[in-house]
Amino acid sequence: MIKFHPAKSLLQAHAAGSLSPSMAIAVSAHCELCEECRHSVDEFSAAEATQLINAEQIDFDTDVQADFSNMLSGIIGDEFEPITVTKMSPQAYVEVGGERYTLPTALRRYSQIDWSSMGGISRGRLPLDEGKTRASLLHIGMNGSVPSHTHKGFELTLLLSGNFTDENGTYEPGDFIMLSGEDHHTPVSRDGCLCYTVANAPLHFTSGVSKLLNTVGRAIY
Length: 221
Hints:
The chain is of the alpha+beta class. 32% of the residues lie in helices and 28% in strands.
């Protein structure tokens, strides 16, 4: 059962089309897994459309209506030759760490990204141009963990498959976890998991050989 959801403001911004690409992917993927948030976005989208229609409604005079009707009749009356368009369907899954994971629709165009690995952690960065903000697919292998760390900026983790635990509980697919520099945690995955992450600064490790671990943090970011 999904316990962690995007804030209402994020859902409203998603419905309005005002989120950055990385965050729009996150909310869209979450909504594909969460019926409750999908319903909320549908309601916000309907309200947004109603406001737009009311704001831009135009009263046509009789002559304009007649011209518009004639133009529409001409378009409808024209004969068009059918055009066949062949589209390449994006791959619906990724393979990493010896496992195959099905991707939400919003992430399928990135199924062929390159992966880099360090220990039991693999990261595939999405080719989004958002300055310091970076979006990635992150895989933690079976019985793998990310050492205890905090965040110099924000970190969003959307769990796509598998599960992991930290000091705050256990997370299931669909959980949308937003953390800030005030949070620290130690994610551990018994069975392995795949996450979508968005962060605007490297992780800052707080235990172990910090200098070495913070090099790892920059690699994961």
